[in-house]
Amino acid sequence: MDRCGFCGKKTAPGESFCSQACQDRYGRAIKRDTAKTGWFLAGILLGIGVLFAGVFSQRDPLMGGGLLLLGATVVLLPLATPETVVLLGWRRARLLARVLGLALLGMGVWTGWF
Ligand SMILES: [Zn+2]
Fold first, then answer.
1. Could you tell me if residue 19 is inside a domain?
2. What is the pLDDT of residues 27-70, one digit of tens each?
3. For residue 1, what pLDDT is reported?
4. Is there a domain that residue 31 lies in?
5. Which domain holds residue 52?
6. Cα 39 from chain centroid (whole Å)
7. CA of 10 relative to ligand 1 center, distance in Å
8. Which contacts of 14-22 are long-range, i.e. CB under 8 A and separated by 24 or more positions?
9. pLDDT at 23 over 70
10. Cβ atoms within 10 Å of 52's Cβ, excluding its own
11. pTM of the predicted model over 0.85
């Protein structure tokens, strides 16, 4: 099944995008995302570092803080992975990333302070 790489709508067989407008927006979005990848990775690595520090020292607020950091990074910089883009289209992949980020934030608060 062929889907538009940006909006996820079905396309004519062999076409990667449903329209020129989608193709243009996709190109710009990917460029923007690529520029932010460094920040994204830094946020994720820091979040995982804090999370593990919390796990090893058995401090719940530290674990919660790590999860919050991960969640905030994903919500602020919802970089869609190539796999989810192929599956869902860029726009939906980004929405999914945001939802997962919010779930992480919820988990972080719950782990750290309840
Ligand atoms: Zn489209």
1. no
2. 998 888 888 888 999 999 999 999 999 999 999 999 999 999 99
3. 61
4. no
5. 36-113
6. 12
7. 8
8. none
9. yes
10. 13
11. no
* Residue 80: pLDDT over 80: no
- Arithmetic mean of pLDDT over the chain: 89
Q: Is residue 58 part of a domain?
A: yes
Name the residue among 47, 77, 76 with its Cα closest to residue 64: 47
Query: Are the CB atoms for 79 and 29 separated by under 8 Å?
Result: no
Ligand 1 ion local residues (Cβ < 5 A): 4, 6-7, 9, 18, 22
CA of 98 to the centre of ligand 1 (A): 20
Residues 80, 30 contacting (CB under 8 angstroms) = no
Ligand 1 centroid vs 97 CA: distance in angstroms?
A: 19
**Structural domain contains residue 91:** yes
pLDDT of residue 37: 86
How many structural domains comprise the chain? 1
